[in-house]
């Protein structure tokens, strides 16, 4: 898929000949399909995900598969627990965890990602999704989850969201980070808020680049 970002609300004069690709213009008025479809299908561990032009997805699907496997192996999953997936995106982690737990709740602010999440997890009756900011939802609702997964953008969580996570009182946290600096900032607050760092694992999403993804696991003490 070719994604063209523009500040002009008018669709671009654009054509593709003899190329089997989709092209989408993303601008102030939303997404405009210039050719083909407004989404692509990505596959991780044999599961297919609808990903719209405005939605985020891990482009390195082999490493995404490794991250999903890591979470499944290290989280205390059972059919009696509730999992809260903050910044759930199109449902990459939720789709693999939902069959293993009693209830899964996602939080996502992107309308396109929420639409994709609903499509990708349509088969599950134990899944709920809040289309709102993490700060808004965590500041107004207590879920009493057993596990919280957090996969924020490069800016990290920030003080208010960490406070909201601490207020939920989950026994285990999994923090997926793409920036060591913001992880360190948030980790300090998690540590003083009653959690101990148990394990941190690095995933090289972009070989020969300095960007490193990590998953840190925390337990309440």
| Shape estimate | globular
Secondary-structure element pattern, one letter each: EEEEEHEHEHEHEHEHEE
Helix content: 25-40%
Number of strands: 12
CATH T-level topology of the largest domain: Rossmann fold
Number of DSSP helices? Answer: 6
Alpha carbon gap, first and last residue: 46 Å
Output the radius of gyration.
18 Å
- Output the CATH homologous superfamily of the largest domain: Vaccinia Virus protein VP39
CATH classification, class level of the largest domain: Alpha Beta
Count up the domains.
2
Spatial arrangement of strands, main beta sheet: 8-7-6-9-10-12-11
Structural class: alpha/beta
- Which blocks of ≥5 consecutive residues have pLDDT under 50? none
Per CATH, the architecture of the largest domain is 3-Layer(aba) Sandwich
Main sheet specs: 7 strands, mixed
Strand content: 25-35%
Mean pLDDT, nearest integer?
A: 90
Question: What features would you describe in this structure?
Answer:
This protein is globular. The chain starts with a strand and ends with a strand. It has 221 residues and is α/β, with parallel strands linked by helices. The longest helix is centred in the N-terminal third of the chain and has 14 residues, at 61-74. The chain is built from six helices and twelve strands. Strands 8-7-6-9-10-12-11 form a seven-stranded mixed beta sheet, with helices on both faces. It has a three-stranded mixed beta sheet with strand order 1-2-3, with no helix packed on it. Strands 4-5 form a two-stranded antiparallel sheet. It has helices at 61-74, 92-97, 111-120, 134-138, 159-168, 180-192, and strands at residues 2-5, 23-27, 30-35, 39-44, 47-52, 82-86, 103-108, 127-131, 147-150, 172-177, 195-203, 213-220. The protein has two domains: 2-37, no CATH class; 56-220, 3-Layer(aba) Sandwich (Rossmann fold), CATH 3.40.50.
